[in-house]
């Protein structure tokens, strides 16, 4: 498959990537627990069907101390007993927000109220941005790559991604 656009040589794409990365940093530095952010990233990647992103977020979560057991159960979080109630509502918000085309209206009032029982307003905003904004690589970046046919997925094979923590050391 050939790339449709050379985004790496585009001044506009360079600016977009810079601003999107900045938005992602703002969410990462929020008071939303890092473990919750990792679980949300992984679940959105699974829903979006992006192997590269699923691989990347699994390895990042492992490097951040997440357990292999919990990560292996993210796709079945409703039946799994290893997640806290707060993590479960975060995963529910992730699913409802990511499956907008399937969810007839997006996030329900009930799901939002359940999340508000566990997270403050800043954390709820961070959750929404983590899930819906470009800060969610599994959402925005997957959409860009399928439109431009340029994704790192062209050069990716299962297990080839090193976590960002590993790459930084």
Provide a concise account of the structure shown.
This is Carboxymuconolactone decarboxylase family protein. This protein has one domain: AhpD-like.
Task: Supply database-style keywords.
single chain; 169 residues; mainly alpha; AhpD-like; 9 helices; 0% strand; globular
3D architecture notes:
With 169 residues, the chain is mainly α. 60% of the residues lie in helices and 0% in strands. α2 (34-48) runs parallel beside α8 and α5 (85-98) packs across α7.
Please state the CA-atom Rg, rounded to the nearest Å: 16 Å
Sequence stretches where pLDDT stays below 50 over 5 or more residues: 133-138
The CA-CA distance between the termini, in Å, is 33 Å
Q: Label the overall shape.
A: globular
Organism: Kribbella sancticallisti
Domain Carboxymuconolactone decarboxylase-like: 21-95
Protein name: Carboxymuconolactone decarboxylase family protein
Pfam family, one: CMD
């Amino acid at each position: 498959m050939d790339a449709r656009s050379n985004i790496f040589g585009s001044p506009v794409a360079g600016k977009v990537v810079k601003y999107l990365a900045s938005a992602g940093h703002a969410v990462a530095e929020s008071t939303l627990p890092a473990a919750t952010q990792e679980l949300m990233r992984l679940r959105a990647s699974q829903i979006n069907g992006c192997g590269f992103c699923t691989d990347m977020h699994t390895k990042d979560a492992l490097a951040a101390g997440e357990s292999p057991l919990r990560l292996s159960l993210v796709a079945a979080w409703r039946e799994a007993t290893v997640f806290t109630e707060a993590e479960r509502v975060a995963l529910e918000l992730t699913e409802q927000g990511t499956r907008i085309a399937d969810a007839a209206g997006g996030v329900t009032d009930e799901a939002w109220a359940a999340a508000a029982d566990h997270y403050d307003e800043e954390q709820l905003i961070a959750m929404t941005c983590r899930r819906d904004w470009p800060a969610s690589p599994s959402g925005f970046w997957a959409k860009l790559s399928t439109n431009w046919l340029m994704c790192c997925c062209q050069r990716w094979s299962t297990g080839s991604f090193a976590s960002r923590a590993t790459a930084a050391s």
